[in-house]
């Protein structure tokens, strides 16, 4: 059981470190979104995927360790929590303290990442809305480009035929 606890603490610590590495990447992503720098955004996405793959592997390892601990403790592996595991360690205050510290750091780091991700989500949503707005302006300008010339008596001036689309259908 002690080796499982040590492995759990080490895995959680490694997971927290990878999440901490992800924070500056996500902050770079925020700057790239704001600057509309698509090249940087692509590079950042590659780095991001690498870190996410590492966290996924650690997450799977952590889940397996938690399942093993639950089996040893006679608890349901699907519902066991770190708090329940820490409670079992009440007779081992040093291990309990280590587990609680890494849990708190992990929780704080994940919360920070969530804040940054929410901010990036909002920025991307705003960017998409701006692109859609610009596309609508372009479409409405193209559709009305032939009918916006008027003479002094407010009748349409002949000259441009209305355009129905952006492409010539005969080609």
Would you write up a description of this structure?
The chain has 171 residues and is an all-alpha fold. Helices cover 75% and strands 0% of the residues. The chain contains 4 helices and no strands. The protein has helices at 2-35, 38-73, 82-88, 93-144. It is elongated and about 75 Å long. The termini are far apart.
Q: Could you tell me the mean pLDDT?
A: 85
Q: Nearest-angstrom radius of gyration?
A: 28 Å
How many β-strands, per DSSP? 0
Distance between the termini: 74 Å
Instruction: Give the oligomeric state.
Output: single chain
* Helix percentage range: over 70%
Beta-strand level of the residues, as a percent range? under 5%
Query: Helix and strand succession?
Result: HHHH
Spans where pLDDT lies below 50 across 5 or more residues:
156-161, 165-171
Overall structural class, as computed from helix and strand content, comes to: mainly alpha
Number of helices: 4
What can be said about the biggest beta sheet? none
**What is the molecular shape?**
elongated
Considering the chains and any ligands shown, give keywords for the structure:
171 residues, mainly alpha, elongated, disordered C terminus
Q: What is the topology?
A:
Layout: H1 2-35, H2 38-73, H3 82-88, H4 93-144
Helix pairs in contact: 1-2, 1-4, 3-4
In short, what is this structure?
By secondary structure, the chain is mainly alpha-helical.
């Amino acid at each position: 059981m002690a080796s499982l606890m040590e492995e759990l603490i080490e895995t959680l610590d490694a997971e927290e470190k990878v999440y901490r590495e992800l924070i500056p990447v996500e902050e770079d992503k925020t700057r790239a979104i704001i600057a509309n720098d698509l090249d940087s955004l692509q590079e950042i996405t590659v780095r991001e995927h690498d870190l996410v793959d590492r966290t996924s592997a650690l997450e799977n390892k952590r889940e397996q360790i938690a399942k093993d601990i639950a089996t040893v403790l006679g608890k349901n592996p699907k519902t066991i929590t770190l708090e329940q595991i820490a409670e079992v360690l009440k007779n081992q205050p040093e291990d309990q303290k280590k587990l609680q510290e890494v849990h708190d750091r992990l929780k704080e780091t994940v919360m920070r990442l969530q804040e940054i991700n929410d901010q990036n989500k909002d920025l991307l949503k705003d960017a998409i809305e701006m692109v859609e707005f610009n596309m609508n302006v372009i479409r409405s300008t193209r559709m009305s480009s032939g009918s916006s010339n008027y003479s002094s008596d407010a009748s349409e001036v002949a000259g441009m035929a209305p355009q129905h689309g952006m492409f010539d259908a005969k080609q």
